[in-house]
Amino acid sequence: MKMIPSDYPRDHTAIVMAASGKTVTYGELEDLSNQIAHLFRSLGAKRGDGIALCMENHWLFLPVCWAAFRSGLYFTAISYRLQASEVEHIVNDCGAKVLVTSKLLQENFESLHAKLEYAPTCFMVDGECDGASSFELAIQDQPTSPIADQSYGERLLYSSGTTGNPKGIKKPLLDVELGADIETVKAANTYSFDINTVYLSPAPLYHAAPLGFNMTLTRFGGTTIIMEHFDAQQSLQLIEAHQVTHSQWVPTMFVRMLKLPEEVRQQYDVSSLKFAVHAAAPCPVDVKEQMIQWWGPVIWEYYAGTEATGRTLINSVEWLEHKGSVGRALNCSVHILDDSNNPMPTGEIGGVYFESMLTFEYLNDPVKTAEATSKQGWTTLGDVGYLDDQGYLYLTDRKSFMIISGGVNIYPQETENALISHPKVMDVAVFGVPDTDFGEAVKAVVQPMNMDDIGPELEAELIAYCRSKISHIKCPKSVDFLAELPRHPTGKLYKRLLKDQYWQASA
Description:
Structural class: alpha/beta
Helix content: 25-40%
Radius of gyration: 23 Å
Number of strands: 27
Distance between the termini: 62 Å
Strand order of the largest sheet: 2-1-12-11-13-14-15-16-17
């Protein structure tokens, strides 16, 4: 058993698009991915080369990835929310031989097409335009049989750019035929996917976690329900309607669901859930407590990155005993180091590093690769945290977001976690702003539940609320309000964009 689409009944459902109802069976996934693989080969894409795709959550997204995966190609999924210049940078940086986009993104494509340095062959799903041929027409006459030289491909994804320009994360290809390294694949199946699994995918497919979950799921024959866009109430509807067993979330999605009126939340039966996995950003303790109370002990959390050199994992039972932890190391070791790469004692805060046999490089950026590697050869995602005496990891924040106020180190994640639990707060960002006396002052920017509530009274209420939960020095000195915060669909907050605005204004 090679754990590819052809291993499962041809009429078994692989993909369901939540809004449109479009379905793709395993037989169709097998045929489509083979046709696309033949197309890639006909265009000169050989093992080790790359393709890129930039499209919304579309029923052809996973077939394109499967085609690259079974062809020994690197595949770069690009956020369709990026500006044309940003997409241009990534396509040029990864050196893709082929670019697949969609009619929805035609305007973006027309802006960047002439600026593509390596002249990839370009295709468009659901249409065509100058410079991009119809993808559906290009594959329709290709063979549905596998290519002769199948081998494992790999994702080449780019960081979300929350702390700087996106960087490609390149991992070595497995030098074996497709299906030859079964034990490695089985080891990756942490959440017991099988042919009976029904997985709800509410996030953009271009992000590492949803793409990884979906690719793994379809190796094990499960069915994925792909949401075109996340909606809190629709998520609950889909869990009940499809008897969803597995799902993957980010904390902001939990917050959105918890902010629904109680009578709405209780309309839906979520008892089919066995694994509800979350990651991407720290989850406030009270938010997770409420989710466990609501959904039961099915909430799992992991900490990892696109770099994939290490991972921690924790289930609900463990978490209730170690509240706030992101778990213990899984198939790796976790170390806490100071700025000189020296190990820190248990309970003390420092940089979080993974020790494992896995490697990666930031594409075309040896300096950044070196910066992410300790003198011991361990790698970091740039996060700060500590270990308890049982080896459970607690994340404090990203190192780059630390506020130094009056010589005191303040990690804004704790402040954000305190404020998000206020009933009038939908979203919040906390960061340092220039301060004459203290160097930096703590600033909160809040997206309220209702913009009609904003003003000095709400500002004072939120500051007082925060002071009732954590040390005053960690609380904001002032609060500003926005109708919406710049948050990545994966849940990561583009805090850098907000912070830069304040620092530039004070310059």
